Amino acid sequence: INFLNLSRVQFIKETKSIKIKMIHGATKSLIALDMALASLVISLATILLGLYAAYKLSSYLQVNVFDSMLPLIVISAVFIVGIAAISLFPLITSKISSDTQVTPTPTHLYALPLVIQFTLAVIAITATLVLQRQMTFINNQHPQAQNANIIVIERNTTAVVQRYDEFKSLLLQDPSIVNMTGAMEEPGGDILDNFYFEMEGITPNPNQSIHILTTDSNFFSALKIEPLAGSVHLGYTPDQQWERDAVELSTLVQKENYNQDRVQELYDKVSPYREKYILNQSALKMLGIENPKEAIGRTFRLSFNLPYLFPEGEIVAVVPDFHYTNMHTEERPLAIVARKMFSYNFLIEIDPNRKEEALASLYTTWQKINPEFPLVYGYINDSYKKVYATEYAQSKVLSLFALISVFLSALGIYALAAFSMQRRVKEIGIRKVNGASISEIMVLLNRKFLILVSIAFVLAIPIAYYAMSRWLESFAYKTELSWWIFALAGGIATAIALVTVSIQAYRAATRNPVESLRYE
Hints:
520 residues, eight-stranded mixed beta sheet, 12 strands
């Protein structure tokens, strides 16, 4: 769009030069060829710069566009522009002769492309603001998502998890390690395991089940999640040896012939423990319990195929929907149980003032406990970012597109403003002679462009609102499309237009009117 506008403006500016060339013997075909070759050089330069920029940006965005047909399409498109230019200029110059007067181009031919540009710019700015606002909203909902001091060791093997108690005990001996806990799912993961259950005061429903999240007993205190009722400080919970005994006992009693002495021995060890269950707010909503305190102390039992591993117990706490998992889906009804044998993900909080010491201790302890497995770790904020990798990539792309749109729009309005001021040199000079102030002239010159930007804003808002509403539908929890987002996008576009046009308007308004009239 800018290229077409600038070519038209440049041609009008060079009309006198063309006439002089024709008077001195230049043919129309030679002039047309000269213009077309200049256009073709620009097209070729565009190909080289565009492909280089695409290569650099694809690395930044982690998208390899060179595996697709995109470069071929781009090159073909630019060559078409070049061929069109070669064909176009002979048609234009065929109408020029040494005594031809150039008629002014209708204003709407310049205004329409400008409105399209600013419409796209406003849409891009709005989309960028909404994406960034949504990602900030999501991160603020996740527990400790902004904490750069929590290390996550994800998806450990069963062999590593079996040594959890030993690893934790040894690691916490180092003062640079603040805390350690574990969970069945990694931060941002998806909790899929669900079971039927029985609860005191609730009629059993075969169509109703609850999802289960197993954690270490200090999970909520480590992530600083406060309960709505009850206490998340569980006190005594079984160690991993008790868990192994419970699994063995559950397996033995399901056999037809089993060692009764061994079963009795295991039963004596396992049976005294009464389970401590924690429910989340969504679970209470499913059960129809409005006051979290009403759930505390009720008997609860999971229908699990290893009955002694999750024995009957009571509800000791109710926690809010703490959004440990990703937010593409609504929070599921959860029962949280302290079981270390399923804690495949370790969360370790380190002292930020002793980071190097903590990392060294983590590596040394890991090598001592799990020498056959490499230590692979990250941070909790990066874990959540991985879940929303697509959204972050979209944010990067839209941010770049917004910058490019704004730059091209500013370039387009700058060129159009310069051309407009040049055509109104005489008018501005006469107004100044008749007493018009610089501010009055600047307002006059800015008015038309502000109207065009306003039209673009009106066109962009419904498109941007519809597009971003559809995008936000992919999240169960989302920010609101506040009016100020659209106002800010329009304000940014208007400010860019004002600054760009005002530079040209000020130059024209401060010009000596005598020189202006003499020039004309």
